Amino acid sequence: MKNTTLVLLGLAAVSAHAADAPGFDPKRLSQDVKVLSSDAFEGRGPNTAGETKTVNYLVEQFKAAGLAPGGDLSAGKRSWTQDVPLGRFEIKGPVKLTLTEGKASRELKQGDDLAVRASMSGAKLVDFKNAPLVFVGYGVTAPERKWDDFKGIDLKGKLAVVLINDPDFETGKGDFGGKAMTFYGRWTYKYEEMARRGALGTIIVHETAPASYGWPTVKNSNTNVMYDIVRKEPRKAHAPMEAWIQRDLAAGMFTSAGLDFEALKKQAQARTFKPVELKGVTLSANYAVDAQVIKSKNVVAIREGSKFPKQVVMYSGHWDHLGVGQPDAKGDKIYNGAVDNATGLAAMLELARAYGKAPAPQRSVVFLAVTAEEKGLLGSEYYASNPLYPLGSTVGLINVDALSPRGPARDFNISGSAKLGLLDQLVAKFKAANVAYSPDPKPEAGYFFRSDHFPFAKRGVPAISFGSGSDWIDGGVKAGKASEEEYTEKAYHQPADEFDPAWTFTGMARDLGILYAVGSDLANSTMWPNWSVDSEFRAARDKSGAERK
After folding, report:
1. In a designed cystine with 404, which of 224, 362, 461, 468 is the match (CB 3.0 to 4.6 A)?
2. CATH number belonging to domain 88-291
3. Do 432 and 525 form a contact (C-beta atoms < 8 A)?
4. For 411-438, how does the pLDDT look when each residue is reduced to its tens digit (9 = 90+)?
5. Which CATH architecture has domain 26-86+295-547?
6. Which residues, other chains included, contact 526 with Cβ-Cβ below 8 Å and sequence gap of 6+?
7. pTM attached to this predicted model
């Protein structure tokens, strides 16, 4: 009874700031998550029957909420979707990997030893023999930090072995912001940088702490079908081989080359580091790749503004998950994605119902459910590159990704530690409901770069990705942290991310009232939030200032 009272008090505080906001129903949230993460939706993989079912369900719910289609224009009318052309890449047949150390050779197993991605370089066959391996530390080129891990080495015909995260991760201090990951620490950056340098391949050494997830996540995310935006020159973004390797296997390779992995990792934390070849150690690979261009879809719904319809407040979240993939120990092949991200979809649908019932706002409110987030933020990247509503007149974006389906917390967070007016407004609204802001608890995990607000943020749009708190009213920080850790280890990007009928969704219901209040304030005002003056995204926003006058 105590917990129920606290939830009601929280909702009452929210309603004081958004008196006209309809209620947010935990039962409806539960039902949406249950449906979207059911086996019938086959893990919501892009370009599958699961996509068709997901898109149809979202359109049906947005329509029932009273919203209008906000997608591609055809004959002067909006559709419910935006076509997103994607390259689709799948390994066909076996992956043959042979590691040679001195005179001894052995076969490596795809998924267990290495997680090799289907090549997105345009190559239909990846086939090389005895390619040399070169350790390039963290693989960073950062002129503004006077940092260069390559020191002029030519990587053509070579496999670059690289560490995950930033040089600061181990020590917590240095030129890369301490524990907080910069974009240089992301695996996407590593792959792109090696491709720019003409490497034959990139092999990232997996370690759980700096990656922020275990090997099962790496295996499941990299050994299935890959997608990318369609590129004119794919080799500039992707080397022929892209892979992850188990830490202990990598360390053994270093030992075979007469090197000490841990000692070299320590050297890589300094700007004086120089690349080191693993002498006597080579890798051979052979695997075929089926490459196609397919069309996926973003779903777009709009509540048109009554006074400033061309000014847009946006909510976003990704509809896709990993689809059907390799079976787990129980033989389950469906990656249902209940928390990630059926919860975000349910949140958007509830918000849409609220806006549909309320009087039309002065500015338009757009709901964007994007595809292929799990493949590298591709749906949001495509939208941000081809916006249906100009980014300069997009007031702000609130992204919802992997929310807690449990009870309410005393706090909330966002991905990363960005400073912007939109966060200030969010903090103020939550504070009025007696909910505190907790800074990103794991800035070293680089979550800021891992969700769909990022393609908007890097183009200047004030954008945040909302996160549920971990200081639970029922159980405190201990219970909240334990739940997060268990989810990351046992369910994240695994078939075990399934709907649980015990979930109450009362925390989401409480938080959605506040997210609604923030969006409604923006939609019924002339406010233009911006980034802080020292933000790396401020200049991009200021460039479009004329569009907001």
Report:
1. 468
2. 3.50.30.30
3. no
4. 999 998 788 999 999 999 999 999 999 9
5. 3-Layer(aba) Sandwich (3.40)
6. none
7. 0.80
